[in-house]
Amino acid sequence: MIVRETEPVILIGGASLPEGQVNHVLRLARVVIAADSGADSALQHGITPQAVIGDFDSISQSARAAIPEAAQFPDPDQDTTDFEKCLRAIAAPLILGLGFCGDRMDHQLAACTALARHPWQRCILLGERDLMFLCPPSLNLPLPEGVRVSLFPMGAVEGVSQGLKWPIGGLNLAPDGRIATSNAALGPVHLAVTAPKLLVILPLEMLDMTVGALRATQAYWPSPGKEGDRA
User: Fold this and answer.
1) How many whole angstroms separate alpha carbon 198 and alpha carbon 158?
2) Phi then psi for 187, rounded to 5 degrees?
3) Residues near 121 by Cβ (< 8 Å), separated by ≥ 6?
4) Is residue 231 scored above 70 in pLDDT?
5) What's the CA gap between 143 and 153, in Å, rounded?
6) Cβ within 8 Å of residue 148, ≥6 positions away
7) pLDDT given at position 8
8) Mean of the per-residue pLDDT values for the chain?
9) How many CB atoms lie within 10 A of CB 44?
10) What does pTM read for this prediction?
């Protein structure tokens, strides 16, 4: 592990950051990590990241000069994305990911895959309008009535729900089959799923509620061993 924290951390990627998003998440976490060229984005917002992790193919030379060498952790592995490199190197109770959605569709799809491949990590990715995270085995979301709730399967998965306008009980969800986007909350929502394969997508306004819900969730997907252990 490169980073070990007992409080949530912010992870910044290289995609553009919506105005005000950094200031918002800084109210929820203080430690900032950068994925490769995310270091440039952090520095542009006046933040020196505690660690920079990635294959260093896109970070600028000026950013490398501005960040202490001891905080730079190059990883030349070309079989994983910079986001994945960070997920396997961070131990924290929650990761708030900025700059991984929005600029390039292939990068955003790769980020979705990384969430499914590292299900032991409590990680929320923020876009311009939405947030997404991998659903734990059981989850309670204290949502107001009418909030959009989209569920997207990254593999075959089943589940049950309470508080959704269209319940998912009895459905076989799969990315090439039945999906469950554009649902709506009738009030507080409970989800339980059979596998770490279901992405939950909510409006960005639900960020603070989502942070509280994920931190309160006791049961989570098991880690593969010491490398994946959370703090």
Assistant:
1) 9
2) 155, -150
3) 87, 90, 95, 115, 228, 230
4) no
5) 21
6) 182, 183, 184, 185, 202, 203
7) 97
8) 94
9) 11
10) 0.94
C-alpha distance from residue 52 to each of 30, 34, 156, 213 (Å): 15, 5, 34, 28
CA distance 203 to 157: 23
Q: Both ends of the chain: CA-CA distance in Å? A: 10
pLDDT of 230 above 50: no
Q: Residue 56 is encoded by which pair of tokens? A: 């260093």
Tell whether the model's pLDDT for residue 228 goes beyond 60: no
Which tokens in the block code for residue 17? 């950051």
Q: CA-CA-CA-CA torsion for 211, 147, 120, 77, nearest 10 degrees?
A: -100
Q: Which residue has the higher pLDDT, 227 or 54?
A: 54
Tell me the pLDDT tens digit for each residue of 88-100: 999 999 999 999 9
Question: Could you give the percent of the chain with pLDDT greater than 70?
Answer: 97
In this prediction, residue 78 has a pLDDT band, given cuts at 50, 70 and 90, of: confident
Alpha helical stretches, state H, the chain: 21-25, 38-44, 61-66, 82-87, 105-117, 207-216
Question: Per the structure block, which two tokens stand in for 35?
Answer: 């994925």
What CA–CA distances, in Å, run from 148 to 127, 184, 189, 204, 224? 15, 5, 11, 11, 33
Place of tokens 């252990």: 229
Tell me how far apart the alpha carbons of residues 13 and 33 are, in angstroms, rounded to a whole number: 9
